[in-house]
Specification:
The complex is a heterodimer. By secondary structure, chain A is of the alpha+beta class. Chain A folds into 2 domains: 12-294 and 526-552, Periplasmic binding protein-like II (D-Maltodextrin-Binding Protein, domain 2, 3-Layer(aba) Sandwich), CATH 3.40.190.10; 298-523, Dipeptide-binding Protein, domain 3. In chain A, 30% of the residues lie in helices and 22% in strands. Chain A is built from 16 helices and 25 strands. Chain B has 2 domains: 2-74, no CATH class; 88-306, MetI-like fold, CATH 1.10.3720. Chain B has helices at residues 2-29, 34-39, 46-55, 62-74, 88-123, 128-142, 145-159, 172-201, 204-211, 216-253, 259-268, 272-300, 302-306. In chain B, helix 7 packs across helix 8 (172-201), helix 10 packs across helix 11 (259-268) and helix 11 packs antiparallel against helix 12 (272-300). The radius of gyration of chain B is 24 Å and the shape is globular. The termini of chain B are close together.
Chain lengths: 554, 307
C-alpha cells in the first residue's frame, strides 16, 4: 500500500471533519426533537389511565423464576409480576402486603401469617397458605436449584398450613432478617400450578399475583407485560388502589449503555435504566428528561484484602493502604458527583448504617509511610519497599468488563499506592479464571459489591461459613475470621430488639473500618432517566423499579 | 461436475466434524467451571454444586461427555442451555432470522457498493476520483464498527430522528446495523475489485481486444470485469465469515436479536451447549456459502467447468 503524504493528510482532514459534523449535531441541537414533553412541568393531578410504557433494560433476564435465580435484573423484572407477603418502606418499617398480619412466637423461631383471602394468581388459581408453603419449601430445598432465595430463608425449617389463610413458618434458630428478606421480589410468591405445568421452563412462563403479567418474551429483544385487571392488593408503598394505570409495559433489552441513552433521546423508549455518569450529568440539564436514583442497600463496592494471606494479614499494612488511597478524588473524577463515596462496608441506605464513620479517616501519606517503616518494610532502589528480599506487592484481580468503571478505579489506586512504595499488579480475567482465582484465594485484593437489604449481608462477606474452598467459590472474599466478630455477626441476626441489633451492627462496621478489612469505595445508585411524560416510577426497598403507579401523559 | 459437488459435500462434512471436535475441546480447555460461574459469589453448598453438575452431565469424564454430545448431535439434539434450560435449537432458531436478514442486507450493500466503487476506481485509476474512493474504502475497513455504529446512531436516530436506534422490527430497524457492516464490506470488496481489474487490464488478451478495435466499454464490462470477478467472489465468501463475526458486536450495539448476541452471552456465562450449537450453525453456513462460491466459479469462468 503506497499512501503518499498528501493523500494521508486528506484522510486526517476528512476524519476530523466527519467527527465535527457528528459531534456538532449531538451537542448543539436541543431544539425540540419530534416527540418530547410539553413545557408544563407539573404532572396532571389525575394520572392518565391506559397507554404503554417503553423502558430500556440494561440486559436480558436469564429467567424470571425468582425463587431460583441470583441475578439482579431477573429480580427487577420479577418485582412487577410477583407480590411479596410484606413490604419494606424506606425507613425500614415492615408493612402488610399479601399477609394481613403476623405474629412472632416467644422463642422468636416461628412466624404465623394471616394471609389475604381475596388474592388470585394470573392463572386464576387462588393464593393461599398452601401456595406460600410450596414456594418456601421449593426455595429452601437443600437439593433444589435455588441460589439467592435459599440464602434469604436462612435457617428455614418448615411451613405448616394451619388453615386456608393461616401459615406458620418455623426456623431452626431466631432469624431476625426474615421479614426484611420476605419483602424482596426474590421471595415473591409464584403460582404452584405453574411449577407443575412448566417444570424447569417456569422461568420463561412466570405466573404471580402482581399488577402485571407476562404477555410475551422475545429473547434478546423485548419482554411485554400487560395489566392484571383483577388487581386490588397493591404494595404498602403504592399511591393508588385497584389495577395499574398502564395497559402495557414494553421492556426493551438494550445491554449497550450508549445505545440505551440514544434510544431514550430518539424517543424509542420513554425511560431507561442504568445511565452512565456523563449522560446523567447531561440529561439532568435537559428540560425534557428527569433522573431518579435509588442508593442500593447491601455491601457497597469495596476493595477487600485477603486477610488471611501474608503480608496483608498484617493490619498495619492494610491501614497504610487505607490512609493512602484517595477515595474522594477517585469517586469525584470518575463518576462526576453522581455516585456518593462510601465510608462503611454497608451502604448508606441499609438498616443500621453507621453515619459516624463518615470523614472518620483521611488521606495521610506520612502516617502510611510510618506504619510501613515500623513493620520493617524498607524502600528499595526501585522505589518499591521490601522485607527479607521480598517486594511489597498487591495482587489485584477483577473480572473483565470494567463494570461501573471499576477497572479505572484500580488504575488510580495503582498510581496512588506507588507513593508509599507498594507495587500493585492488576490481573483482569474472564469469568472462568476469575472464579478459579477466587476459589484458590490466590489474590491480595479484590473489588466487589453485594446487593442486599438487611445488614446481615455482613455475614455474607465476612463470616467464616462463607469462605471459598477449592471446590467452589463463595462470598467471604476477605477470608476474614475472628471468633469474637463471628459471634457478634451471629448475635446480630438472632437479636429481635431492633435497637440492640443496630448497635451491634454499628460496632461491627467500626471494627471492619478500623482494621481496614476492606476499603469502601462507592455506594451504587441505581438510576432511571425518563421523559417528563412519565410519572410515578417508584422503587421498592432494595431499589427495584415498580411500575404500578406509573402513568404516561399524552 | 456432479462428482465435484459430491466430493466437496463430503469434504464439508469432515470439516464440520472437525469443527465440532475442536470447539468442544477448546471450550473445555478454557479455564473456569460453568456451574461456578452460574452461582458465583452466592453462598451455595457443595451439594447444590454437585447436583447442578450432575444435571448437565458435567461430572462425567471428558471423553464420555464428548461421545455423548456427538451422539446427540447426530440425532439432531443439541442439548439444553445451562442458563435457562431452553433447548439450544429452539434458542438459536428464534434468533437466527434476525442475523440472516442482517447478514443478507449487509452482504448486498457490500457487493453493490463494493463492485461499483471498485470498477469506477479502476476505470479512473490514478485520478482524483480513484484517490477519493481508495481513501474512503481504507476508512471503511479501518474504522472500528462499534464506533461507526455510535456515530450513525447519533446522527440518524438522536439528531435527525429518521431511524430507530435499537431493536428489531421492520426494515427501518435493519438499515443502520446493515449500513455499519456494509461500510466495512464494501471497502474490502472495492479494493479487491480495483486491484484485480488492474491486473487483468494488463494481460495480453486485453491488448488484443483493444487492437481489434473493440470499444473500451465492452472491453471493460464484457471481458475484463468477468475475468476480474473470481478473486472478488472468493472475497465475498470470506466476507460472510467476517460479517457473521461482526454480528457479535453489531447485534449488541444495536440491541438486536441474533445469533451473534447469543454467542456472546453464552461465552460469558460459559454456557457450553449454546456456544457449541451456535458455532456449529455459523460454521455450517460458512461452509455452505463457500461451497456455493466454489461452484459459482464454473459459471463465471467456463475454463473451470471443463477442468
Amino acid at each position: 500500500m503506497n499512501l503518499s503524504f498528501p493523500k494521508f493528510k486528506w484522510a486526517i482532514v476528512m476524519a476530523i471533519g466527519f467527527s465535527l459534523v457528528v459531534s456538532g449535531c449531538s451537542n448543539g441541537d436541543k431544539n425540540a426533537p419530534a416527540n418530547t414533553a410539553s413545557t408544563n412541568e407539573a404532572p396532571a393531578s389525575t394520572p392518565t389511565e391506559g397507554g404503554e410504557l417503553t423502558f430500556a433494560l440494561a440486559g436480558s433476564p436469564s429467567t424470571l423464576d425468582v425463587g431460583v435465580t441470583s441475578s439482579d435484573i431477573d429480580f427487577r423484572v420479577g418485582r412487577n409480576i410477583f407480590d411479596s407477603l410484606v413490604g419494606e418502606l424506606p425507613d425500614h418499617t415492615i408493612k402488610p402486603w399479601l399477609a394481613e398480619s403476623w405474629e412472632i412466637s416467644a422463642d422468636k423461631k416461628s412466624y404465623t401469617f394471616k394471609l389475604r383471602t381475596d388474592v388470585t394468581f394470573h392463572d386464576g388459581t387462588p393464593f393461599n397458605a398452601e401456595a406460600v408453603k410450596v414456594n418456601f419449601d421449593r426455595s429452601a430445598d437443600p437439593n433444589g436449584k435455588s441460589v439467592y432465595a435459599k440464602q434469604l430463608l436462612g435457617p428455614y425449617e418448615s411451613s405448616e398450613v394451619i388453615d386456608e389463610s393461616t401459615l406458620k413458618v418455623n426456623f431452626k434458630e431466631p432469624f431476625t432478617p426474615f421479614l426484611s428478606n420476605l419483602a424482596k421480589s426474590t421471595l415473591g410468591i409464584q403460582s404452584p400450578e405453574s411449577f407443575k405445568k412448566y417444570g424447569d421452563q417456569v422461568g420463561q412462563h412466570p405466573v404471580g399475583t402482581g399488577p402485571f403479567k407476562l404477555a410475551s418474551w422475545v429473547a434478546n429483544s423485548e419482554i411485554v407485560l400487560e395489566k392484571n385487571s383483577d388487581y386490588k392488593w397493591p404494595s404498602p408503598a403504592a399511591e393508588h388502589s385497584g389495577p395499574a394505570y398502564l395497559d402495557k409495559i414494553v421492556l426493551k433489552l438494550i445491554p449497550e449503555e450508549s445505545t440505551r441513552v440514544s434510544s431514550l433521546q430518539s424517543g424509542q423508549v420513554l425511560a431507561a435504566e442504568s445511565i452512565p455518569a456523563q449522560n446523567i450529568v447531561a440529561l439532568e440539564k435537559d428540560p425534557n428528561y428527569q433522573i431518579q436514583k435509588a442508593l442500593l442497600p447491601g455491601a457497597t463496592f469495596q476493595l477487600t484484602f485477603n486477610n488471611e494471606k501474608a503480608p496483608w494479614n498484617n493490619v498495619k499494612l492494610r491501614q497504610a493502604v487505607q490512609s493512602t488511597v484517595d477515595i474522594d478524588a477517585i469517586v469525584k473524577s470518575l463518576y462526576l458527583g453522581t455516585f456518593p463515596r462510601s465510608w462503611s462496608p454497608l451502604s448508606s441506605s441499609t438498616l443500621g448504617y453507621d453515619s459516624s464513620l463518615e470523614d472518620s479517616y483521611k488521606v495521610d501519606i506520612q502516617h502510611a509511610n510510618q506504619l510501613l517503616d515500623e513493620e520493617g518494610w524498607k524502600l528499595g532502589a526501585d522505589g518499591i519497599r521490601e522485607k527479607d528480599g521480598k517486594p511489597l506487592e498487591i495482587n489485584y484481580i477483577d473480572i473483565t468488563g470494567n463494570r461501573e468503571k471499576r477497572g479505572d478505579i484500580i488504575k488510580m489506586v495503582q498510581q496512588q499506592v506507588k507513593q508509599i512504595g507498594v507495587k500493585m499488579n492488576v490481573s483482569i480475567m474472564a469469568a472462568g479464571p476469575y472464579v478459579d482465582a477466587l476459589k484458590a484465594a490466590s489474590y491480595d485484593l479484590v473489588g466487589h459489591s453485594f446487593a442486599g437489604g438487611d445488614p446481615d449481608i455482613l455475614r455474607t462477606i465476612f463470616s467464616k461459613a462463607n469462605w471459598s474452598t477449592n471446590e467452589y467459590a463463595n462470598s467471604n472474599f476477605a477470608r476474614f475470621y475472628d471468633p469474637q466478630i463471628e459471634q457478634q455477626l451471629t448475635d446480630a441476626y438472632q437479636e429481635a430488639d431492633p435497637e440492640k441489633r443496630i448497635a451491634t451492627y454499628k460496632e461491627l462496621q467500626q471494627y471492619f473500618v478500623k482494621n481496614a478489612v476492606s476499603i469502601p469505595v462507592y455506594v451504587f445508585p441505581y438510576t432511571i432517566a425518563e421523559s417528563k411524560k412519565v410519572s410515578g416510577i417508584t422503587f421498592d426497598f432494595p431499589g427495584y423499579p415498580q411500575f404500578y403507579d406509573v402513568a404516561v401523559s399524552k | 461436475m456432479l462428482r465435484t459437488i459430491l466430493y466437496r459435500l463430503l469434504v464439508s462434512i469432515v470439516v464440520l466434524l472437525c469443527t465440532i471436535t475442536l470447539v468442544f475441546f477448546l471450550l473445555h480447555l478454557l479455564p473456569g467451571d460453568p456451574i461456578n460461574i452460574k452461582i458465583a459469589g452466592n453462598p451455595v453448598s457443595p451439594e447444590v454444586v454437585a447436583k447442578l453438575k450432575h444435571e448437565f452431565g458435567l461430572d462425567q469424564p471428558l471423553h464420555k461427555q464428548y461421545l455423548q454430545y456427538l451422539g446427540k448431535v447426530f440425532r439432531g439434539d443439541f442439548g439444553k442451555s445451562l442458563v435457562d434450560n431452553e433447548p439450544v435449537m429452539t434458542k438459536l432458531m428464534a434468533q437466527f432470522p434476525a442475523t440472516l436478514w442482517l447478514t443478507l442486507l449487509s452482504m448486498a450493500i457490500s457487493i453493490v457498493f463494493g463492485v461499483l466503487l471498485g470498477v469506477v476506481s479502476a476505470v479512473y485509476r490514478h485520478r482524483s476520483l480513484d484517490h477519493l474512493i481508495r481513501l474512503l474504502s481504507i476508512f471503511g475497513i479501518s474504522m472500528p464498527t462499534f464506533w461507526v455504529a455510535i456515530l450513525l446512531v447519533l446522527l440518524f436516530s438522536v439528531n435527525l430522528q429518521w431511524l430507530p436506534a435499537s431493536g428489531v422490527g421492520g426494515f427501518q430497524y435493519l438499515i443502520l446495523p446493515a449500513a455499519t457492516m456494509g461500510i466495512v464490506g464494501s471497502g474490502l470488496i472495492a479494493r479487491m475489485v480495483r486491484g484485480s481489474i488492474l491486473e487483468v487490464v494488463h494481460e495480453p488478451f486485453v491488448r488484443t481486444l483493444r487492437a481489434k478495435g473493440l470499444p473500451e466499454r465492452s472491453v471493460m464490462y464484457q471481458h475484463v470485469l468477468r475475468n476480474a470477478l473470481i478473486p472478488a467472489v472468493t472475497m465475498m465468501g470470506m466476507l460472510l465469515g467476517e460479517l457473521l463475526a461482526g454480528a457479535v458486536v453489531i447485534e449488541s450495539v444495536f440491541a438486536r436479536q441474533g445469533v451473534g448476541r447469543v454467542i456472546l452471552d453464552a461465552i460469558l456465562a460459559k454456557d457450553l451447549p449454546v456456544v457449541q450449537g451456535a458455532i456449529l450453525l455459523t460454521a455450517s453456513i460458512y461452509i455452505l456459502v463457500n461451497l456455493l462460491v466454489d461452484l459459482s466459479y464454473a459459471i463465471i469462468d467456463p475454463r473451470i467447468r471443463q477442468a
